[in-house]
Amino acid sequence: MSQPAFSSRFTSSPTEVKGMDTAQLRQHFLIETLFIAGQCPWVLSFYDRYMTGGAMPVNGPVTLETPENLKAAYFLERRELGIINVGGSGQVVADGQTYSLARKEALYLGKGTQQVEFRSDDAANPAKFYLNSAPAHMTYPSRKVSREDADVVVLGSQETANHRTINKLLVNSVLPTCQLQMGMTELKPGSVWNTMPAHTHDRRMEVYFYFDIPDGQSVCHFMGEPQETRHIWIQNEQAVISPNWSIHSGAGTSNYTFIWGMAGENLDYGDMDVCPIPELR
């Protein structure tokens, strides 16, 4: 089912989620469609007022419009924006400044940026700009972050099927932001588990966007309280909202890549409460 141009997802307590069936879990937490040719759909989560969207310019540029629900003169009047290109090469034009983004390169746009336009270099292989936005209290400089600029960490092992490379792109070890943080985790062939051991973090929420899932394969995303887990099956180029009280982990039928984006009251990447694997229920 396609998402409308703008939709809201209200917060749900752990007690509510315990009673949800499969359809209800998907309705509240799964974002099924992010890339529509020539459009820029958005989903606003009331967890930290986080916004998740996508822009896929095909027959000409796509302009970052301001949803009426934001009650703002322009989209980034009181927000910051993180962009990671997961498609063909393209460009982002922000207040007259052009940023070229190859696949898996990132761009941060600070509060106060008024005009934003997305372009593809090749309509036959369009750019797919994955977008995350959070409220911002001050202006930080806009900046492109290439893969060479990333803070890279390799974790896990082949023996535990979670050998992965974490590319910290829009995080405070790379550039200043108000509260938005984004990065990309690439699982190596033969590895399928991400974020294991699982964890929660009370001071921020998170959104996972899964891509590079081969045809015919899927990822099972785990959520919920550590002793009350639930799961949602994810297809290629879909995202899932993770409340601050929920774990966020996944296992695929193949290796894949995912983008994590988060916001909250702190920028400490290591601020998390790890859930021992044998204690998960």
UniProtKB/TrEMBL annotation:
One of this protein's Pfam families, by short name?
KduI
- Cofactor(s) this protein requires: Zn(2+)
Which GO biological process annotations does it have?
Answer: D-galacturonate catabolic process; D-glucuronate catabolic process; pectin catabolic process
Question: EC number(s) per UniProt?
Answer: 5.3.1.17
Write out the catalysed reaction.
Answer: 5-dehydro-4-deoxy-D-glucuronate = 3-deoxy-D-glycero-2,5-hexodiulosonate
Query: What keywords appear on the UniProt entry?
Result: Isomerase, Metal-binding, Zinc
SUPFAM superfamilies given for it?
RmlC-like cupins
- The EC class name is isomerase
Does Isomerase appear among the keywords?
A: yes
Chain coiled-coil ranges: none
Note whether Zinc occurs among the keywords.
Answer: yes
What does the UniProt cofactor note say?
A: Binds 1 zinc ion per subunit.
Quick one: which residues bind Zn(2+)? Answer: 199, 201, 206, 248
Q: Which GO terms describe its molecular function?
A: 4-deoxy-L-threo-5-hexosulose-uronate ketol-isomerase activity; zinc ion binding
Instruction: State the pathway, as annotated in the record.
Output: Glycan metabolism; pectin degradation; 2-dehydro-3-deoxy-D-gluconate from pectin: step 4/5
Q: HAMAP family under this entry?
A: KduI
Q: Which NCBIfam families match?
A: PRK00924.1
Describe the function of this protein: Catalyzes the isomerization of 5-dehydro-4-deoxy-D-glucuronate to 3-deoxy-D-glycero-2,5-hexodiulosonate.
Q: What does the similarity note say?
A: Belongs to the KduI family.
> Which protein, by its recorded name, is this?
4-deoxy-L-threo-5-hexosulose-uronate ketol-isomerase
Q: Which species is listed as the source?
A: Spirosoma profusum
The taxonomy runs: Bacteria, Pseudomonadati, Bacteroidota, Cytophagia, Cytophagales
Query: What is the primary gene name for this protein?
Result: kduI
